[in-house]
Design a protein that fits this description.
Layout (H helix, E strand, L loop, with lengths): L3 H8 L28 H8 L6 H17 L8 H15 L8 H11 L3 H5 L5 H24 L7 E8 L11 H35 L17 H17 L3 H14 L6 E3 L1 H12 L1 E4 L2 E6 L2 E10 L4 H5 L7 E7 L5 E2 L5 H8 L6 E7 L9 E6 L1 E4 L6 E9 L2 E9 L7 H5 L7 H14 L4 E5 L8 H9 L6 E7 L4 E5 L12 E5 L6 H12 L3 E4 L7 E6 L6 E10 L15 E2 L37 H14 L1 H17 L3 E5 H25 L8 H16 L10 H21 L7
Parallel strand pairs: 12-13, 13-16, 16-17, 17-20
Antiparallel strand pairs: 1-21, 2-19, 3-10, 4-5, 5-6, 6-7, 6-8, 8-9, 11-12, 14-15, 14-19, 18-19
Helix pairs in contact: 1-19, 1-20, 2-7, 3-10, 4-10, 7-9, 8-9, 8-21, 15-16, 16-17, 18-22, 19-20
């Protein structure tokens, strides 16, 4: 229950867009009218609704035994660990502690605590399914309670009365009265938020009417004209319906991921549909029909087709058009399911499937009436996502009246289609693409190269080792220790060739993880280049991907990474040589995760430094600070972080409409002032008011949403990091050659 009404004001300023709604049935809500302690009788009635299949039971046993014997931590899945697994399961189901009573939790722990995890080793999911049945009872009761409350008059002016918006570490309620009092406060808080949102939307629409140019040709159709209470009723009703669509896979996933999260944050279980997404990220291909979808503006009950992959299965039918609403989905030989009101994630799960299988989609063309819907049967195929891989370019940097050329290589992940390689097919990998980029940029006679690893979540260990070998002469790339303490040193390929030996910089941020940290750490330790940005995630663990389960897939943490100097990248991450602003202000990452593995050290691996750049860092940092202090984009980002952090630090919300509007107006005016200050400094016309700014940013976001990520132009505040990194690299070149630092 974070204060999204405040955060949205700041999110606008960086163009943050979220097209999909919360998929979890719990959301940040709560519920229960009949909160009786968890007993055998209270759960049996609903537990029969969903039962595990034989394949799911076998997969459960496989996962439990693997984590028991092969996880990096020597932590056996015994009675003590079972208690922790149950705690994690309950926390994942009810993270805000507003569904279960303390008596529920006590009864569940007494009954299942000692053997909740142990049962899983035999494939026994009965306890997990019983608890989930109780959870569904509670959440149904919650939404029904809230719907009843919405039929009553609500006081939105409870001056100086506050609701706790962060209950993750709060105790469970001990009785129904206290619990339901909180729910009533939650209704008021949400109505206040929706009232403010409606006022803002009305003001934005007036601004668009007065100045249609603000829309920049985009459709900024307002949402349905509903009162805040009607909107909230519709939202609750939709979530109630979603609960009835929960499948056995959802319970299995919750159970096994609670088990795995008890060991570390990066061991994960993926049911078949989610496994497809995992494979898509690592191989840049998926099996589906080749469309992208999003909720329709103005009516989120409908999902529309946003774009179609040229040459993909949907495109080949000649019957699918952008703008079509998806109102039904049927698997081959099965009845049509009405998907109106479904989330995009649910619809994606229904549409995706194995290559060669068929799916029928019921489409309603834009502007058509219900009786004009069409049925299109499509055979799924492999969709190559060529645009989502590595990109490279050159930028010109003005220094002392002269332009210097810097190459920029943007690496979104360390991808490798290992299945295609295993099967002897042509395949794509990030090391192959990086080699081509390095050679091309060398031929263009760039003065230096910046490797952009910002927001790169990692990927193939094999690929990152190859890529380190492309920029060093020889030597170890990374050290790895297994759960038995055995250390293995991975060296750059013996037959490899240093493709680039020129000036190099690596950009990182808090969202750079795993293989990104191995790469940047190696560049730093060898003195091969300069590392710029903010401290990384701290994911210094390696997962084995198991696709040999009876059902779904597993990633299991079995090893830890260590730098060639012996220090782990785990938890602490990679600290940059030159620090820029952290736009995420350390909000997430390993240091914020539950049950992270600890940082430690091992012996240094023998290696030869290419350079020792450490003597330049103070001068480089000072020069960068001077530039950024006068740069409109960085001045804006500094204000953005300050404002965003102030909102994130707030753990309560006032239940008075006027007080909340006053607080929101303060945030909006500070955000607008920061934006207008930036616009004036860059020669742009300031926005007249918040509504105009809101409309313009929404138009920009709408236009960007229609493009694939690789096609979206860099925002000026994003490009500022690239330009500054180029300046820092050129400063280092000047210092190494004995020149005075340029401008």
């Amino acid at each position: 229950m974070k204060q999204r009404y405040l955060a949205s004001a700041i999110a606008l300023s960086l163009g943050i867009v979220c097209w999909t709604q919360t998929v979890s049935a719990t959301g940040n809500s709560t519920d229960t009218a009949n909160n009786t302690p968890a007993t055998e009788n209270s759960t049996n009635a609903t537990a029969k609704n969903l039962v595990p299949t034989r394949e799911q039971a076998i997969a459960t046993s496989q996962v439990a035994r693997l984590v028991d014997h092969q996880h990096y931590l020597p932590m056996r899945l015994d009675a003590n660990t079972s208690q922790r697994v149950l705690d994690m399961y309950l926390n994942n189901l009810d993270s805000d502690r507003i569904l279960f009573l303390q008596s529920d939790v006590d009864a569940l722990k007494a009954k299942y605590g000692n053997d909740f995890g142990v049962r899983l080793k035999t494939g026994d999911l009965s306890a997990a399914y019983q608890i989930h049945a109780l959870y569904r009872e509670r959440i149904r009761a919650y939404y029904n309670f809230m719907l009843t409350e919405l039929n009553k008059p609500q006081d939105l002016n409870q001056k100086n009365t506050y609701i706790n918006t962060d209950r993750e570490k709060s105790p469970y309620f001990t009785n129904e009265k206290a619990q339901q009092d909180y729910w009533r406060q939650s209704v008021v808080s949400q109505l206040i938020g929706l009232t403010i949102s409606k006022q803002q939307e009305d003001a934005k629409q007036r601004a668009l009417k007065e100045n249609p140019a603000l829309a920049e040709g985009q459709d900024l159709t307002p949402s349905e004209d509903l009162t805040p209470a009607q909107t909230l009723k519709k939202r609750y009703q939709r979530r109630l319906e979603r609960i009835e669509r929960l499948k056995s896979d959802d319970i299995l996933e919750s159970t096994l991921n609670a088990l795995l999260a008890t060991y570390d944050p990066h061991s994960n279980y993926y049911p078949p549909t989610d496994a497809m997404e995992l494979n898509r990220q690592t191989s840049l291909q998926l099996e589906g029909i080749g469309v992208s979808i999003r909720p329709e503006r103005g009516n989120e009950d409908y999902t529309r087709i946003e774009s179609i992959v040229e040459g993909g299965p949907a495109s080949k039918t000649g019957q699918v058009r952008t703008g079509d609403r998806i109102i039904g989905v049927a698997q081959d030989g099965e009845p049509m399911q009405d998907v109106i009101g479904w989330t995009t994630q649910e619809i994606v799960g229904a549409i995706r499937g194995k290559r060669g299988t068929k799916v029928t989609v019921k489409l309603l063309p834009a502007g058509a009436s219900a009786n004009q819907a069409k049925l299109v049967t499509i055979t799924r195929d492999v969709i190559q996502e060529a645009d989502d891989g590595l990109r490279f370019r050159t930028i010109d940097v003005e220094r002392q009246g002269k332009k210097q050329k810097i190459g920029v290589i943007e690496i979104p992940s360390f991808y490798l289609n290992y299945r295609a390689r295993r099967d002897g097919e042509s395949y794509r990998s990030v090391s192959i693409d990086t080699a081509k980029a390095l050679l091309t940029l060398k031929q263009q006679n760039v003065d230096g190269i910046v490797i952009d690893l910002r927001n790169n979540p990692g990927g193939s260990l094999e690929e990152v080792v190859k890529m380190i070998g492309q920029v060093i002469k020889s030597g170890p790339a990374v050290q790895i220790r297994d759960g038995n303490g055995q250390v293995t040193v991975l060296n750059a390929p013996a037959d490899g060739q240093q493709l680039y030996d020129g000036p190099l910089a690596v950009m990182i941020n808090l969202a750079s993880a795993s293989a990104s940290e191995i790469y940047s750490a190696a560049i730093q330790d060898y003195g091969r280049g300069i590392v710029i940005g903010s401290t990384t995630t701290g994911k210094g663990t390696a997962q084995a991907q198991r696709d040999d389960l009876a059902y779904g897939q597993l990633t299991l943490t079995q090893r830890k990474f260590y730098r060639v100097t012996g220090g782990s990248t785990q938890n602490k991450g990679v600290v940059p040589d030159i620090k820029l602003i952290d736009i995420y202000f350390d909000q997430f990452g390993e240091r914020k995760s539950k049950n992270p593995l600890k940082w430690d050290t091992i012996a240094t691996a023998p290696f030869q430094r290419a350079n020792d750049l450490r003597g330049y860092f103070n001068q480089l940092q000072k020069r960068s600070d001077e530039r950024r202090n006068t740069n409109p984009q960085f001045k804006y980002l500094s204000q953005y972080v300050t404002l965003n952090k102030s909102v994130a630090d707030e753990k309560r919300a006032v239940l008075d409409l006027n007080q909340r509007i006053e607080r929101l107006n303060s945030i909006e005016q500070q955000t607008l002032a920061a934006e207008n200050q930036r616009r004036k400094a860059t020669g742009l016309e300031p926005y007249a008011n918040w509504e105009s700014y809101q409309a313009a940013v929404e138009a920009r976001n709408e236009a960007r949403a229609k493009l694939r990520p690789a096609q979206r132009p860099q925002l000026p505040e994003e490009e500022a990091f690239v330009t500054e990194s180029a300046h820092i690299l050129l400063d280092m070149i000047d210092l190494q050659s004995g020149k005075k630092l340029g401008n």
